[in-house]
Amino acid sequence: MLIPRPQTEHLVDEALRFIRGSMRVLDVGSGCGAIACAIAAETMALVDATDISPGAIEVAIENASRLGVAERCRFHVGDLAEPVRNQRFDLIIANLPYIPTSHLPKAPDPTSFEPRVALDGGPDGLTHYRRLLPELPSLINAGALVLLEAAPPTISHLAGAVSSTCRNFTISVGKDYSGLERYVKASATG
Questions:
Q1: Which of 26, 36, 102, 127 is the most exposed place for a label (fewest CB within 10 A)?
Q2: Which domain holds residue 159?
Q3: Is residue 138 in some structural domain?
């Protein structure tokens, strides 16, 4: 898992503005559980979180317990949404590995020591999102919100892919603290 980045705070802020009551939330690619735990700590949402790394899920479970939100967070080891395939959610949030392979940091950059699996988004940075997007329609409830973080140069391509997958959704792009396009927001319109 990687060290949580400030840019991801925008995803959490968007989620907190959207969540009402005990909505169902899915955090795909949860890593250490930072997003899942923050949402559970600030709302009454029930959060499921997935990650392919058993070690990351162990840390996420420890974090949820330490923060007192374990009763509203369920963590699952598995690829993307596979562990929760037959469930539906009001909010799906994903911060999947999105750095294009050719742009992965190299030493002495401190991020070069983070696990490659937590960073490498494939040739164009969108490999994992392309695998997740076809699953979204079967995972969302009416009126759902989908939030997806990616690298600024890939956002327009990700927004286009979301638009073609999530029909009847309004697609917008959010910016990070530096003013760079950082995440796609897809809101159900009907």
A1: 102
A2: 6-188
A3: yes
